[in-house]
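Format notes (please read before filing issues)

Several people have asked whether sequences and structure tokens are stored in separate files. They are not. Every record keeps both together, in the order shown below: the sequence lines, then the token lines. Line labels are part of the format and must not be stripped during preprocessing.
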Amino acid sequence: MNSQFIKSLCLGGLFVNPLFGLAQPKPNFVFIIADDVSFNDIRCYGNKVVKTPNIDRLAKEGLRFTNVFLTASSCSPSRCSIISGKYPHCNGAFELHTPLPPSEIPFPLLLKEKGYYTAHVGKWHMGPYAHRAFDLYTDGNGYNNGDGGENNWVKFLKERPRGKPFFFWLASHDAHRPWGADTFKITHDPSKVVIPPYFADTPETRQDIASYYNEIGRFDYYVGKVREELEKQGALDNTVIIVTADNGRPFPRCKTRVYDSGMQTPFVVFWPKGIKNKGAHPEGLISSLDIAPTILELVGIAAPKGYQGKSFVPVLGNPDKEIRTAVFSEHNWHDYMAFERMIRTKDFLYLTNALPNLTNCGPADSKRSPTQASLNHLRDLGKLTPAQADVFVSPRPAEELFDVKNDPEQLLNLASVPKY
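Then the structure lines:
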């Protein structure tokens, strides 16, 4: 096809599907982002306790990516990075609650300019300058987003204008502290939760994790309601649903940290009309930077020159395809001073710490948690294991290296071993 013909198709509401080379209606997008949820706290990622049937179903009928990493394990830097297509230190929003500068181009704005109806519903934390990317946004507009932030999702899907392709950014407050889902209809038994080796196995920690799972269960419930509404509208088949999170669980050694417990994220892509290898689980490395150029390519829009991600459209057609050999992440100020940089390949995680004199304790909400209190008690008794002691260590190593194939929890620092 010549470029002029392709252009006319895009302007007419059709686009040439890059997977199949056919003229089709432009796809819709529903981007669903959880708050503070680690990749392995979703059932389809191996957690046998947490109840996430709706996300699991999307993964079974779509793609479950197994090696997706964020650029920051901190809410606003992570979200601003996704929407701007740039690393936090490049877009100017690299510290907690720093607004995205007006010079940056949020990718939904490009969709809006091409005729998409765009809406942001729920948690924001990206500043006022990104509002222009959305026809509707709930930030500062007098909307009550409710405890978990999901109560307006279906409402606004119902109220969207018909006859236009749409992009929805649906953001929950689940599973951010303080917990608010313990009385929701989905509950978890503290005696059955998964205790990472860097936590203390106490009743308080177990209840803390069970409450966290309850938040994830509520998030999953509303993911199911979104799918149900799209199906009622007859829009499900041509809607790309992406389910992910902005950073790791709000617990010690997780949120804000550059280890996998902070940076690796669940990432499920569902698109009945566009994905043929249903149930596959691509293992290639993906960065959250890659979301923006992928969505733009799927509708025939060139990514802005300054975007730093790579489109993973080839992976949607071939799950064995790999677009990266490494991903990069960073840890800057989030309640406490920090300056870390990380590179992650399939086999290794390497980090440098420019402020090794400081502890790497995690954010304030984690520091106030029952899980942290249990660790504090063990510390005072002199009974911490090396894994549990990590959040108290000062000075820290300036370099850390982990063999993630053999040490998935990143507990054994190999940086000083001569063979490496």
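For reference, the curators noted about this record: The two ends are 51 Å apart (CA to CA). Residues 203-232 form the longest helix (30 residues).
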